[in-house]
Amino acid sequence: MRYYKNTPNDIIKGDQTANILENHNALVFHTKLKGYHPTPLVHLPLLSKKYNVGNIYVKDESHRFGLNAFKVLGASYAIHQALKKNPNIVCFCTATDGNHGRAVAWSAKQIGKQAVVYVPKNTTIKRIEAIENEGAKVIKIDGNYDEACEQAKNMSIINDWTLIQDTAWEGYIETPALIMAGYLTLFKELEDSIHISPTPSIDIVFLQAGVGSMAAAGIYYYLNKYGVNRPKIVIVEPEEADGILRSFKENKISTSKGNCTTIMAGLNCETPSLGAWDLLKSGTDYSLKIDDDYAKQAIRELYYPNGSDQKIISGESGVGGFAGFLAIMNENDLKPIKESLKIDNNTNILFISTEGDTDQQNFMEIIRETSSIKNV
Question: Rounded to two decimals, what is the model's pTM?
Answer without folding.
Answer: 0.96
